[in-house]
Amino acid sequence: MKIWTSEHVFEHPWSTVVNAAWRKYPNPMNGAVTNMDVISQQVDEGVVKSERIIQSQFSIPSWATKLTGFSGTQYSHEYSVIDPSKQTMSLTTRNMNGVSFLKVDERLTYVPHTTDPNKTILKQEAIISVKLPAFADYCEKTFLSVYSSNATKGRSGIEWVIGQFRKEYDELTNKVSSEVHEMGEKMMGAFHKVK
Amino acid sequence: MSDRQMPSIFHECDELKQVYDKCFSEFFQKFITPNYRHQYAVNPCERLHEAYNDCVKERLEKTKIYDIDLDELRKEVIGSEEDKLKHQQQQQHKK
């Protein structure tokens, strides 16, 4: 068993990061995630609790498939609790395939920075255990290095989504201002006609 | 954000999912802002989720895409005692 932990600071307020984290997929940095379903969702006493099943597509060498029975399509279960009055979002994710030899538990928590409300801290923890005699240590190490690089991709993914939101917002404001501008022109034209 | 969508695992449920997602995203965006009255919030998309989830649930049961027992996993993952209790009540309610 191996445990991996990390902390990351986003230069955005909590609600921005959480909005992006909730709608993180699809993004170009995490192309493996292809499909997703929300299997339960409750809004209860100011807290949103959701369960999602996430489908990912990996390219796995055929020898590994033979060894482990793992195919390229994987499913994971995600349970999330979002409490906006306490400003916390926590996600617990576990793999749903190949559990007889591999268990991955991941826990993510998004909370505001203790002193700067314009920053958000992501705490990340992963517990990996591989049950393949002789291979366990090798597999755990390999998995961790892949996981660690994926974690970086996950963060860039969130930044990308925030960028998309911003772009959409800018487009909206641009659109509004241009429509206002056009309206102004039309009004002016009308005035000219009246004259 | 209409161009950035995550499809359902089951093609047949995708249309229902997109309708639900759109509804929930709109609610969620307001819900997480600091001045929203969180305590009094209800999920405005509950009915849409019901229709969508019926579609998914039926297919999850049929296809067995994963090799774990979902109820067992829930017992372990769905954290607090309070959560567990609520979940049990829901299950009983469904029966």
TrEMBL record, chain A:
Pfam families: PRELI
All copies of domain PRELI/MSF1, residue ranges: 1-170
Gene Ontology CC terms, in alphabetical order: mitochondrial intermembrane space
Domain of life: Eukaryota
UniProt xrefs under PANTHER family: MSF1/PX19 RELATED
UniProt protein name: PRELI/MSF1 domain-containing protein
Organism this protein belongs to: Mesorhabditis belari
Automatic annotation (TrEMBL), chain B:
Family statement: Belongs to the TRIAP1/MDM35 family.
GO MF annotation: an example: phosphatidic acid transfer activity
Catalytic activity: a 1,2-diacyl-sn-glycero-3-phosphate(in) = a 1,2-diacyl-sn-glycero-3-phosphate(out)
Organism: Mesorhabditis belari
GO CC terms of this entry: cytosol; mitochondrial intermembrane space; nucleus
Record-linked PROSITE patterns: CHCH
Keyword annotations from UniProtKB, A to Z: Disulfide bond
Disulfide bond recorded as keyword: yes
Source species taxonomy: Eukaryota, Metazoa, Ecdysozoa, Nematoda, Chromadorea
Pfam families recorded: UPF0203
Keyword Phosphoprotein among UniProt keywords: no
GO biological process: phospholipid translocation
Name of this chain's protein: COX assembly mitochondrial protein
